[in-house]
Amino acid sequence: MKFGGTSMAGSERIRRVANIVRRQQAAGHEVAVVVSAMAGETDRLVGFCREANPLYDPAEYDVVVASGEQVTSGLLALTLQSLGCKARSWLGWQLPIHTDDAHAKARIEGIDSEALLASMAAGEIAVIPGFQGLSDAGRVTTLGRGGSDTSAVAVAAGIGADRCDIYTDVDGVYTTDPRIVAKARKLKYVTYEEMLELASVGSKVLQTRSVSLAMKEGVRVQVLSSFIDDDATPADEIPGTLIVSDEELEGLDMERQLITGIAADKNEAKIILTRVPDRPGAVATIFGPLAQANINVDMIIQNVGRDKGETDVTFTVPSADLLRAQTLLEAQKEAIGYNRIITDGKVAKISVVGVGMKSHAGVAATMFRALADRGINIQAISTSEIKVSVLIDEDETELAVRVLHTAYEMDADEAA
Ligand code: ASP
Ligand code: MG
């Protein structure tokens, strides 16, 4: 079981979480619980780091931000104990949860689960802070924002859990953000592939890495609400959205729609380098240093060179990395040989996702037409087998999502 920040925000909510956990144990399960920091806490801690040093050392950032989950894991263990349950917390370094040393975005390399399994077998509820791990160098690491989801899936895989229930402030995965589109529908099932695309394009329900890990390890994940009362449908009856493999889904869901979901991501920033020399190796000199600095580049557009032997290169990076990327590229100006660097943090990426588009034409055309009809300008496009994404002005995000939800006939009242 994993509980997100909203579910852990304050003593009263932690008590409700403890009750949900206790019921699951009473239903005959051995339970491991992974928790997030209280809602807003990680942002607050990140703020302190930025104030201390805008170009902060990620290793020290990890020391600061990992503390949020330490607090909630201890508090949940205490609360469970107050309800008469046996409970014990296990910090990332105590298990340990091994990660690489990419501070602030570390990858889990393995979990020593013996201690956990022994504790659970002895009837204790194991409480594990999400987000944190231990590098080979013996330093605290964190897994990147939203990393507790990945911790939960990793723990589930490590102990061979039947299911990983991710309790959050929504009752499942929706066709799009219900706060933007009132007629969004809850999905009963989503494939790993679709969820991966939805997660990676900013549907903030799950961290992307948690989904790829679940896919790799075959962990069945359910997203469900923690804001439930005692007579709510038991988790074992799958009241939320179940994330499963393509094969399992085929047997489960007969009425697949063409498009499964629409996601928006405002955490992207656009960088344009003008007049880059159009010769072999030019883009390698741009993206090499970014890769070395662990900056993920997403959409990339390079125009065909014009007669001058120059071309513009446009790409996106996470907003949080914009300043670092810009600093790096400015330092490389001579080596790359570009003319100007133009950045824009006020962009959003809108994506439509669905395994159905593998076998259907016209999905992109519908998207471009619908956006054009509302005068929304497309700044960049990228596609995969099951996704079409466009980059637009951030101010038009909500409008674009609504327009597309209607264009693909996904609105709740139109559903079969
Ligand atoms: N507390 C961390 C964050 O806010 C990790 C998590 O909650 O998943 O990003
Ligand atoms: Mg989260």
From TrEMBL:
<keyword id="KW-0067">ATP-binding</keyword>
<feature type="domain" description="ACT">
    <location>
        <begin position="271"/>
        <end position="355"/>
    </location>
</feature>
<keyword id="KW-0418">Kinase</keyword>
<dbReference type="InterPro" id="IPR005260">
    <property type="entry name" value="Asp_kin_monofn"/>
</dbReference>
<dbReference type="Pfam" id="PF00696">
    <property type="entry name" value="AA_kinase"/>
</dbReference>
<comment type="similarity">
    <text>Belongs to the aspartokinase family.</text>
</comment>
<feature type="binding site">
    <location>
        <position position="179"/>
    </location>
    <ligand>
        <name>ATP</name>
    </ligand>
</feature>
<keyword id="KW-0028">Amino-acid biosynthesis</keyword>
<protein>
    <recommendedName>
        <fullName>Aspartokinase</fullName>
        <ecNumber>2.7.2.4</ecNumber>
    </recommendedName>
</protein>
<dbReference type="InterPro" id="IPR001341">
    <property type="entry name" value="Asp_kinase"/>
</dbReference>
<dbReference type="Pfam" id="PF01842">
    <property type="entry name" value="ACT"/>
</dbReference>
<dbReference type="Pfam" id="PF22468">
    <property type="entry name" value="ACT_9"/>
</dbReference>
<comment type="pathway">
    <text>Amino-acid biosynthesis; L-threonine biosynthesis; L-threonine from L-aspartate: step 1/5.</text>
</comment>
<dbReference type="GO" id="GO:0009090">
    <property type="term" value="P:homoserine biosynthetic process"/>
</dbReference>
<dbReference type="GO" id="GO:0005829">
    <property type="term" value="C:cytosol"/>
</dbReference>
<dbReference type="InterPro" id="IPR001057">
    <property type="entry name" value="Glu/AcGlu_kinase"/>
</dbReference>
<feature type="binding site">
    <location>
        <begin position="2"/>
        <end position="5"/>
    </location>
    <ligand>
        <name>ATP</name>
    </ligand>
</feature>
<dbReference type="GO" id="GO:0004072">
    <property type="term" value="F:aspartate kinase activity"/>
</dbReference>
<feature type="binding site">
    <location>
        <position position="42"/>
    </location>
    <ligand>
        <name>substrate</name>
    </ligand>
</feature>
<dbReference type="InterPro" id="IPR036393">
    <property type="entry name" value="AceGlu_kinase-like_sf"/>
</dbReference>
<feature type="binding site">
    <location>
        <begin position="204"/>
        <end position="205"/>
    </location>
    <ligand>
        <name>ATP</name>
    </ligand>
</feature>
<keyword id="KW-0547">Nucleotide-binding</keyword>
<feature type="binding site">
    <location>
        <position position="69"/>
    </location>
    <ligand>
        <name>substrate</name>
    </ligand>
</feature>
<keyword id="KW-0457">Lysine biosynthesis</keyword>
<keyword id="KW-0808">Transferase</keyword>
<feature type="binding site">
    <location>
        <begin position="168"/>
        <end position="169"/>
    </location>
    <ligand>
        <name>ATP</name>
    </ligand>
</feature>
<dbReference type="GO" id="GO:0005524">
    <property type="term" value="F:ATP binding"/>
</dbReference>
<dbReference type="GO" id="GO:0009088">
    <property type="term" value="P:threonine biosynthetic process"/>
</dbReference>
<dbReference type="InterPro" id="IPR041740">
    <property type="entry name" value="AKii-LysC-BS"/>
</dbReference>
<dbReference type="InterPro" id="IPR045865">
    <property type="entry name" value="ACT-like_dom_sf"/>
</dbReference>
<dbReference type="InterPro" id="IPR002912">
    <property type="entry name" value="ACT_dom"/>
</dbReference>
<dbReference type="InterPro" id="IPR054352">
    <property type="entry name" value="ACT_Aspartokinase"/>
</dbReference>
<dbReference type="GO" id="GO:0009089">
    <property type="term" value="P:lysine biosynthetic process via diaminopimelate"/>
</dbReference>
<comment type="pathway">
    <text>Amino-acid biosynthesis; L-methionine biosynthesis via de novo pathway; L-homoserine from L-aspartate: step 1/3.</text>
</comment>
<feature type="binding site">
    <location>
        <position position="174"/>
    </location>
    <ligand>
        <name>ATP</name>
    </ligand>
</feature>
<dbReference type="InterPro" id="IPR001048">
    <property type="entry name" value="Asp/Glu/Uridylate_kinase"/>
</dbReference>
